[in-house]
Amino acid sequence: MAVGELQQRLGDNLRRERTARGLSQEAFADILGVHRTYMGGLERGERNVTLQTIERLAERLGVDPASLLAGD
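^ thats the sequence. predicted structure below, dont judge the formating
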């Protein structure tokens, strides 16, 4: 696994979840309780998040935390 691959997977999975819900980054960020620029960084795989952050995001989305890191 390449360095940063999990960050990119998280971003891809968040983007997939957002688009499936038909939401803008700003609306999605509001649901997750984060700033829209932070949301953009997450989707681009630029943010190095903690496990606690992943748990919090998953809880707000109503999904299993592992699903946010799952590969295709």
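The chain has a mean pLDDT of 94.
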